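Sorry, explain these tokens?

***
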Amino acid sequence: MLGASGAVGQELLQLLDERQFPIAELRLLASARSAGQKQQWKGQELIVQEVSAAAFQGVDLVLASAGGSVSKQWRQAITDAGAVMVDNSSAFRMDEGVPLVVPEVNPDAAFSHQGVIANPNCTTILLSLALAPLAAKRPMRRVVVSTYQSASGAGARAMDELRDLSQVVLDGGTPESSVLPHSLAFNLFLHNSPLQANSYCEEEMKMVNETRKIMALPDLRFSATCVRVPVLRAHSEAVNVEFEQPFPVAEARALLAEAPGVELIDRSDENRFPMPTDVTGRDPVAVGRIRQDISEPNALEFWLCGDQIRKGAALNAIQIAELLIAA
């Protein structure tokens, strides 16, 4: 494993244990700065090793969650060693010949790899689980999404900062952020990834391009607005989907209730729909408030929540690995 000390790396270690992933030897690799640290896993103490080309010899699978620059640096050494890299960064997602995989949506794509399989962006993973069963029934014309993204998307330090600065506000102080560009304590702001030439930010364009690739719909009309909100680790999304023809709400609800990786929380009589607390620390993506768009007869609207660290990152990577070993 490359990058075990971060929030996603820690979740990967937990899930490898929980899901009883078959492992003969687990190597934890990191930069020289982190080498020598100790990690507890399944009752044993593992020593973090400094990453090197030699460290990949004899390895079958590398779960990489150390960032795009690290993945790019070690890709060749990993593939030269005969290992397959499941990469959680954005480094290779749109590369020709690198499959971008959500196992419940496009599992067959995983087997076209050339040594690297990309794990999609967290918001894309959560969205695709809800889109796929609907798109399989009726072709989609257009998708419009607004995301409400938790602090965990910016890493463990951002989560710690949200906790700390929330207490500062409660104590009457003025929060000053050093990890995020603005304090998230009792606040929200538009995603701070770099703006592109089209005035969409990088995070928004990740959703656009990755969803098109996963769904094999290169011309899908898609627009996204991404917002960072004061939630620790679960993302939420408001989704509007226009189809080629009307889509009865009852039919959509039934399809989503049976969809793999999806949990339906859609109790209109109680005004009870998915919340981040419903999915934190859990595998399913919760979907609800499925309704007819009153402005467009061919469109549906719905709301979803999913754990960003779990299904939005670590769990999806391990599910990809499980596909490979089951083949």
